[in-house]
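Handoff note, outgoing to incoming analyst
You'll be picking up this chain. Sequence as last confirmed:
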Amino acid sequence: MYNLMDTEKDTVGKLPVIAGSRGLSIHGCPKQSCQLNVYDYLADIPGNTDVTDLVEVQFKNTRKGFYHNSNHLPLEKGDIVAVEASPGHDIGTVTLTGKLVLLQMKRTPPKSMDDIKTVYRKARPVDMEKFHEAKSREHATMIQSRQIAKDLGLEMKIGDVEYQGDGNKAIFYYIADGRVDFRQLIKVLADVFHVRIEMKQIGARQEAGRIGGFGPCGRELCCTTWMKNFVSVSTAAARFQDLSLNPQKLAGQCAKLKCCMNYEADQYVEASRRLPSREVQLETLDSTYYFFKADILSSQVTYSTDKRLAANLVTIPAARALEVIAMNREGHKPDALSLESRKQEHKPIDLATQDDLTRFDTSRRKKKKKMKHR
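Most recent structure output, in case you need it:
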């Protein structure tokens, strides 16, 4: 426990910092309301912002971009800024500054360094009024644009609408299985909403990331919180992990295979190489054992004396199974599959089975008979 009286003023002079607790940067902590949160652990390092004038700015949901701080503004993580857009300006939140921006650019490089635009200023109250006014129209615009696309007979779904910070431009995110000719749609939308229209096609996973939600694990969706690049997921990842090929269990909220199946697939593939082949049967002096199931990560293999049923199951380490296979190839058969002596299973004792439940009834009957004879 620390004493609140032992706090000292931070170098920036904004937030109190516990004396002697400079292990983590308080300025690098993200807002919990933001998606694609990042932790800027170099935020309070002196001279960090002098490394580069580039900053990372996040907009609605999963849209991010890199911008030049040409005006040398004292920007920190969490500052709301007005940045250059075409046309006008846009409003976003600074998520990274300094050296970590260069590392982030290596991970997701921009198309061209010449396309990187400029940070104009920190957002003013007038800018925030326009920003909130534009954001308040997004849901109604999305519902109305869906009806317009339906009336035009276009096979597409408009999943989200994002207005620019100054309200002069709107980005329509849509999902479509094939190619869509939306030239007429752009004309109608421009006449109805009186803004510049930009259409962006996204996939089902991107739509789930923009909408948000919770997975069966109880956590917020990965595509909502931190995933930006999506890798294709195949049913082979489920087979490597011995998962049931049930589409209802393997599919996420986007109706595609869950992205998390790829997280441990490589570990399962590497661990499965240490297991014996499922087609090989083990010969012992007492019986022939067939593969039944395997615990891949713990390297435990279970064998049965029947090909189709679970009969006389024996669980042994993978090393022991490989040893038995090597003995069978040399023409030898071990006495038993397991090296350990068979121990009697200690089952829980049911006290109710020790005595007859009607024993008291019989004693009462005997007493009644004695009473009658007297």
